[in-house]
Amino acid sequence: MAHYKMLDGNCAAVEAIKMAKVKVVSAYPITPQSTIAEKLSEICENGELEAKYIRVESEHSAMSCAIGAQLTGVRTATATASVGLALMHEVVNVASGCRVPIVMPVVNRSLASPWSLWCDHQDSMAERDSGWLQLYCENVQDVYDTMIMAYRIAEDPRVLTPAMVCLDGFFLSHSMQKVMLPEQKEVDDFIGTYKVKNLHLDPSDPIVIDNLTGSNECTEMKYQQAIGFKNAEDVMEEVFNEFSQKFGRTKAMIEGYNLEEAEALIVCIGSMAGTAKYVSDILRDQGKKVGVLKIVSFRPFPYKKLREIIGNTKKLAVIDRTTGFGGQGAPLWLEVKSALKSDVLVKNYIAGLAGRDVNIETIKNVYTDILEGNDSDDPIWIDCGENVMNIREVLLND
Amino acid sequence: MIDIKKESRGYIAHGVSACAGCGMELILRTVLNALGQDTTLVIPPGCSALFCGFGKETGLKVSTFQGNLENSAAYAAGIRAGYEVQGNNHSTVVAFAGDGGTLDIGLQSLSGMMERGDDVLYICYDNEAYMNTGIQGSSATPLGAWTTTTPTGKPVYKKDLLGIAMAHGIPYCASASVANIKDMTKKVEKAKSIQGPKLLHIHCPCPTGWGSAPSKSIEVSKKAVQTGAWVLYECEDGNIKLNNPPKELKAVQEYTKLQKRFSGINEEQLVALQMGITKNFERLMRMQAE
């Protein structure tokens, strides 16, 4: 029976992995992902999940094991965060290049340095060109739902591209919410059993996978991946619609809130979308025409849908939970800005780094600034403190 | 175009582009002859990746994944697990990596694989430097040997791979050499028959990197064994056994003089090299007696 359960984001991800019936798990603990590794090892041990758990010695090996196992024809699981994802980087690209559709929860946490245990999106944004789909979650139910949908999307033969399901560290990974879990059979019917497509390891049908490839073919193979991303847009639409129908929760690559005659919209990803919606409600009550666009799929980026959904809105405030050093803006802003015509004001706000809460005040400040309508060449660090340069000042002898 | 009239024997195609006198091809042919078709290989980039071939062509007739340099053991562990959960306990999963990919950058994932007890056969062909990138020193380069990054001879000793493997308490590990193909075959067969992690450390002559005559590769390898620069032994369930050890070690110069990489070695280094070799041989003889 479909039923409700109290789960935190990490456990919601584990429920999805369990119901996807993965056969091999390889995971390495890292804050705030650790409970995923713990819970997976526990259910592999007690038989709740019929899978082999490989207690690897690093995230690099976690991803390597998952790739090796999935090439033999079984669904696999791993999960990571922060510097763990950074360590994985090399083999993250192998998974996508070999078209191994692994689904991996990424529990978003800041990258060192400075050392931080807390949430921002530097880790996954640093992987945005590694050939993985990237889906971002707003709440705990969303974590479960997105994981389930990600298997369908990633494994679709038109896509064959691995997927990161990104959930904000602590804000989602460690907060409990009531989550509706479907019946096992509903999940089975929705994602099907895993079948290896294209590259496979089988001693009775030997092939050599991933040998040196010349410049005469590499471009074409990379282009095939680009086509996979292109196809993923249609596949996502299909899968999101089917999911919405079957499970009653509406899903989309990009979600609008309070769009009616909106003068200004906040564009954001992840858990801060909930706060942004709440604040837009308050401001609507005060007569301000503001709303929210939540980007669910960052890769592929739904730029056509973005153009459609903003209608006549001429002011967009893009909040990045990452830095984008040296660029004109941070990653989300770059995508939004390049998707739109120049008659739309697209301003970049940096907020919520290293676990700093993107609270009501921060969101209000963003709306106030964007409604004023002044353009800015540089990103605005909206929640940055005063006397910045006096923090941990480096004293020079001369 | 070369018109190939006959299928190659064994599991490797004709005309693999190894250097003249390379020991690696002989090692892999011997290994695959002993293991048979029901084998899956993981090969990192490096000299051995030439077996994987280029583009649409390959030199291998067994299922193979070309991995990264540092994670052959992890890929192999994953493949093993994938086979296992599908009921395949018969295929042999082999990682076949050089000394750099094993003793340097690959040591961590190898250690993980050995500690967990994964049923993988790990083979390190040791040509004692990064030969594929152009002869740079590795932790397996012997003391006194020239490489492009040890231009005055390596100042420290070679890392003890089998010592590290034995410290993990794995069921079987052994050294081998192209100097004795029968011995190598026996060890591969034994490793195949044992459940759990196995490690073979195989001395691999490299005329290009060692500055030895391509026609003398076997002779050089034999001198390594006769001088104790390479000791043939195995460790099964913690018991060390030397395989036909020389009754008396020949002077190390008989080995070094055949290779240009030792031509710049000074007297002090030579004494140190000899001392290290003698001590290592005596240590292993003592361990065998215990």
Question: What are the defining features of this structure?
Answer:
heterodimer; A: Rossmann fold; Rossmann fold; 2 domains; B: 290 residues; alpha/beta
Describe this entry's structure for a reader.
The complex is a heterodimer of chains A (398) and B (290). Chain A is of the alpha/beta class and 398 residues long. Chain A folds into 2 domains: 3-247, Rossmann fold; 254-381, Rossmann fold (3-Layer(aba) Sandwich). Chain A has helices at residues 9-19, 34-45, 59-71, 82-97, 122-125, 140-155, 184-191, 215-247, 272-285, 303-309, 331-339, 360-372, and strands at residues 3-7, 24-26, 52-54, 76-77, 103-108, 133-136, 163-168, 177-181, 208-209, 254-257, 264-268, 290-295, 297-299, 315-320, 345-350, 380-381. In chain A, strands 10-12-11-14-15-16 form a 6-stranded mixed β-sheet, sandwiched between helices. In chain A, strands 5-7-6-13 form a 4-stranded mixed β-sheet. Chain A has a 3-stranded parallel β-sheet with strand order 3-2-4, sandwiched between helices. In chain A, α2 links the parallel β2 (24-26) and β3. In chain A, α1 runs parallel beside α6 and α3 runs parallel beside α4 (82-97). The longest helix of chain A has 33 residues, at 215-247. Chain A is globular. The termini of chain A are far apart. With 290 residues, chain B is α/β, with parallel strands linked by helices. Chain B has one domain (23-289): 3-Layer(aba) Sandwich (Rossmann fold). Chain B contains 10 helices and 8 strands. Chain B has helices at 23-35, 72-85, 99-104, 107-116, 161-167, 181-193, 207-210, 217-227, 253-256, 267-289, and strands at residues 39-43, 63-66, 92-98, 121-126, 172-177, 198-203, 233-236, 239-242. Chain B has an 8-stranded mixed β-sheet, with helices on both faces. In chain B, α6 links the parallel β5 (172-177) and β6 (198-203). The A-B interface holds A 23-24, 26, 50-52, 54-58, 60-61, 64-74, 76, 90-91, 94, 201-214, 216-217 and B 37-40, 42, 45, 49, 52-55, 58, 60-68, 70-71, 73-79, 81-86, 91, 108-109, 111-112, 115-116, 118.
